[in-house]
Model the fold of this input.
Amino acid sequence: MSDFDAKKGVVLVNSVFGAPGTSIFESMSRLAAETGSINLGQGFPEGLEPPELIEAAIQALRDGPHQYPPMMGLPSLRRAVADNARRFLGLEVDWEREVLVTSGATEALTDTFLGLLNEGDEVIVFEPVYDAYGTLIRRAGGVPVPVRLAPPEWRLPRDELEAAITPRTRMIVVNNPMNPIGKIFDAAELAFVATLARRHDLVIVADEVYEHLVFDGNSFTSFLSLPEARDRVVRIGSAGKTFSVTGWKVGYVTAAPNLLGPISRAHQYVTFTTPPALQAAVAAGLNLPGSYFEGLRRDLAARRDVLVSGLRGAGFTISDVPSTYFAVADIGAFDVGNDDLGFSRRLTLEAGVTPVPVSSFYGARDVTSHVRFCFAKTFETLEEAVVRLARWREGQSWKAAS
Done:
């Protein structure tokens, strides 16, 4: 079918991809650029890339080859994914039968939904939710079913989760650690989800891209490590998050062979493969000594402390931030109407610091009490943001001082 209907004179678009429109991240980033505001809305890191990784990519580009690598991914990277999971999570993974390399974690999600869902299958997602989930599930023929986590505790609502399961439910998607709120699901919550999945024969899509970004001695447990869930988990990882190279778009899927088979067949027709030099570099990165991963956590925690201290000093209420790139702030002290979108725009214009509204992570856009700030920025950027917030709190113009 042509994308132009000559009779009607209209462009034909897919109903799923045509519906979302401009994302809140794009619109807030555009406003920040137009005004000279510091953009703490989008989750892209600054100044954290390990030089060993960059050098490995340069060497791989020089050495080649430059043609299609294996569809499943370079053996060196698939081995490294399995070895990294063993080293940090105690997981035993068969790299030949259980690991697939993808062009980013979003492609991994796409392949998973396309490979495992049939028309009308229901997929439970936890709100606040990464915005790509719903669109990708719908395009694969599935029906996203939201289950809400509510501030300020963001606890797993067990009764609501159990009630959301119907005969059409096929899978549960769990982002752990969780964007945008930095929640780490505890052992009891993981066990509860695993028990439900076993009882109702569900697949667990474990989006664990922030697995290495856990601070203050907090521990992270992968769903794949639970014996009762091992054969029904699709685990997704991201080199972009682990090595602060989000533009590289290298992700990986780990799953039992019966699940990975259809996922890899979807991958074959979505991207087929991922640039070999980047795969080789990520393999080197995953084999870096533990000191790199420890240093990454320390560095991000220090950046978090700069921003969170500044936000609290400016009057925001912020819970602990145990993981990810993000701090979520309660705006109740500044906006009695809890209009998080309006407040995000106002803070951009008045303080020169740009967050994103947490309501954008809820389908109904009705949880409007919080905004999200990204702290994976340079210390200079964060310190300037803190200065601007302090001036704003004192009623001073940030533009006059810049």
In short: Residues 290-313 form the longest helix (24 residues). The chain has a mean pLDDT of 94. The radius of gyration is 22 Å. The chain has two domains: 22-49+291-401, 62-287.
